[in-house]
Amino acid sequence: MEWRGGRRGGNIEDRRGMGGVGAATGGIGVVGIVAVLIGVFVFDIDPQQMMSIVGGAGGGAPVQEGARGTPGDEAGQFVDVIETSTTDVWTAIFSASGQKYQPPAAAVLYDQATGTGCGTGQAAMGPFYCPADQKIYLDLSFWSELESKFGAGGEFARAYVIAHEVGHHVQNLQGAMDKAQRMGMRGEESGAVRLELQADCYAGVWAARAANGRIQFNAQDISDGLGAASAVGDDTIQKRTQGRVVPDAFTHGSAEQRMRWFRRGYEAGDPVACDTFSAATL
Length: 282
Known about the structure:
Layout: E1 12-14, H1 29-39, H2 47-55, E2 67-68, H3 74-96, E3 106-109, E4 113-116, E5 119-122, E6 128-130, E7 135-138, H4 142-148, H5 155-174, H6 176-183, H7 191-210, H8 219-231, H9 234-242, H10 255-268
Parallel strand pairs: 1-3, 3-7
Antiparallel strand pairs: 1-2, 4-5, 6-7
Helix pairs in contact: 1-2, 3-5, 5-7, 5-8, 6-7, 7-10, 8-10
């Protein structure tokens, strides 16, 4: 994957090295529950425990704020280039339909734990998007875990994760999160699964359009992205953690579904192809 020539927009908030102190801005609320259910890649943790993590710090203390701009290290620059590329892609898509795209408030890099608009985020949750403050949260130690624990290596696998979380931001702008909430947050046909699969498809749309710019992919990169989508499928994780698959507990979709919807977005290059909410079957 060639990304170093990509544009850097500096929409990064770097909280790394701030001591891992997180403070909630209030109770978990609906947006916090949504953040837990839509943003967690490492689904070894019980959902009830994750909601406790998100809301665990209580209210009152101010949320941390880190340095803004392009980080000096390569890992931070990678996030900047990919996040900026998603902004370029979605700005063009929204503009084509007469709308103005508002990018995420920031991609926040942090260590261990940090305060968010949805409560306290912790590294154990994996990357997530908080609708309340419209920020994406990344503890970059997840990249090592993605490769060692999930077997999904390569830079494009990381880019897929970022593009997926930006996909949730697009959904937030479109009102899809409210729709998912009304449809229920667990089960094979749930709103949560439809939300996740659409975000996978949106990540594919980004990949299709980004490849026409200053970021270049090859067939192996796309394979890495598909591998990441498969690795975080509900059935894959359930088999590894509990030895059996429980479809009624799905919140993200199966490995096959996640790969298929990513591929669908990539092949179409059009978010219209990503309407999981109207799909008769997922």
